[in-house]
Amino acid sequence: MSFYRTVLFLLPRSNYGALHIFAEELQKSFRKQGTVCYNIDGTHYQNISDLTYALSEKLCCNPELIISLNGALLNFIELAETAKKELTADITILAYYVDHPLWHHTRLCLNLENYHAAFVDDSFTEYARQYYPNVITHDTFRQAGILSPMSNVPFIERKNEICFFGSYTDQEELHAQLDASPDRKILSFMIDYGIKNPQKTVEEILAETVKLADTELSKVEFAETLAASRLLEYSLRGHFRQKMVRTLIENNIPVSVYGDGWEQLQSTGREYLHPHPSIPYRQMAEVMSNYRFALNVLPWAKYGFHD
After folding, report:
1. SS (HEC) of the chain
2. Is 67 or 53 the better-scoring residue by pLDDT?
3. pLDDT value for 145
4. Bridge partners of 119?
5. Are strands 255-258 and 160-165 parallel, antiparallel or unpaired?
6. What are phi and psi of 40, to 5 degrees?
7. pTM for this one?
8. What pLDDT does residue 156 have?
9. Looking at residue 67, what is its pLDDT?
10. Radius of gyration in angstroms for the set of CA atoms belonging to the chain, rounded to a whole number
């Protein structure tokens, strides 16, 4: 019999296909051990009042463990208050984050009595351990992939060369956001520094910037400053995604890109760029099985994998 008799899974309203599959696999394992699993999938609810009612109903089932996947936790905490249901210390809350903690600063600052967090990257875990002491435990938990029925196709028999999965980042839009930011100068410096030093994590980039400015930040100020610097992480990801794809096609190497917006890419060798729309996660594994090389530039993870 499992340690937890009842588990409630909270899935975010954003459509991260990999997280939904991950939740399905976790639930299979729990159920094999005799655990009763409940599931609230935010993507199934258009109306907030319906989502609030669903949460209230599931909390009446007295879950001993709540597993929140990525962005779900804050929204569901707010809904729990609306539903007049308390998340007491008797309920263990495990929040699983696939992005850098800077994207989840508000969620990680939640004052919950039995709050634990897991991350996909060792550097994310270490950062959270330093800057969010209100969270009881911080651990790295790798997100597993899935097998395609075609995954055993021999390398030599695969029909296509290179695929790239990831959306295009509009550079003009990023520049407009940067120009509108009151912290434009400091953000521009950090982005330039990150491009020149791609081995650095975003927190290392900020720490170096603070050092060069000959100033000091408390841990609270550091976490708040990094959380306000989302444009840094987003810009680095967008820059290196485009650089990778552009380098290939400018050297007459065909690449199939699966993701939104690549029609906007300005580059020579456009005839070697084969854009496709975004596809569901399960289909992605099948498509990938027909290529010899699969590339991506993930959110700024250094010691782990995003979805």
Report:
1. CCCCCEEEEEECCCCCHHHHHHHHHHHHHHHHCCCEEEEEEHHHCCCHHHHHHHHHHHHCCCCCEEEEECCHHHHHHHHHHHCCCCCCCCCEEEEEECCCHHHHHHHHCCCCCCEEEEECEHHHHHHHHHHCCCCCEEEECCCCCCCCCCCCCCHHHCCEEEEEECCCCCHHHHHHHHHHCCCHHHHHHHHHHHHHCCCCCHHHHHHHHHHHCCCCCCHHHHHHHHHCCHHHHHHHHHHHHHHHHHHHHHCCCCEEEECCCHHHCCCCCHHHEEEECCCCHHHHHHHHCCEEEEECCCCCCCCECCC
2. 67
3. 64
4. 97, 140
5. parallel
6. -120, 110
7. 0.87
8. 86
9. 93
10. 21
DSSP letters spanning 197-216:
-TTS-HHHHHHHHHHHTT--
Give the tokens for residue 99: 């992005």
Q: Mean pLDDT over residues 248-264, rounded? A: 93
Separation CA 249–CA 262 (nearest Å):
13
Structure tokens at 287: 């498509």
Tokens of 278: 């975004």
pLDDT tens digits, residue range 19-37? 888 888 899 999 999 999 9
Residue 159, token pair as written in the block: 């029909």
Relative orientation angle of helices 122-131 and 219-227, to the nearest 10 degrees: 130
**263 vs 77, residue with greater confidence:** 263
Q: Give the chain's mean pLDDT.
A: 86
